[in-house]
Amino acid sequence: MKLVKNIGEQRVADLIKEIGKDGNVEAATTEFSIFGFSEFIDRLGSFRKIKIILPTSAAELHSLWGNESERNLRNKLNAQKLSRGVLNILKDKVELRLSKYPLPQSIIAIEDRQSARIIIGHCPLTAEGLGLAPTNALGLTQISENHDEFTELRKWFESAWDSVPDDKTLSSAFIQRLEFLA
Q1: Fewer beta carbons within 10 angstroms: which end of the chain, N or C?
Q2: What's the domain count of the chain?
Q3: By residue range, what is the domain housing residue 19?
């Protein structure tokens, strides 16, 4: 495992962007904002599989706008356009499950034909968590490219995925909130 500084040239967003076409992304995230997720709209369409677990608290309307560190992104007045893009990707490409329980940390498994990486810690799918906005958080983010560690942590994700019911009512409510923003 290596530490990810999540600033400058070593951001979580950049690590995700390195995934080749036909890659897979699986994430369990403590938070979700349209500003963080929209960073990948152009890339996500070429991915084979995208699975996301969110706590229901992250699916609330106010959470989708991001936190205090994303204020400068909100001030660009493009949230409606970004929301439409996020909504389209979520409807077309993403398998989504909402957990009624909070997640203590985030995990992002990314894999393509050449590599497999797992990022764990303070890396929610927000601009702050992806290194796209400044943060005062004392979070720790790590990455592993070790095959055995990737396999073990991915098994944890699959177990978490299987334990969260595929509740269409919760997923539909989340999509409706995004439709309201779009």
Answers
A1: N
A2: 1
A3: 2-181
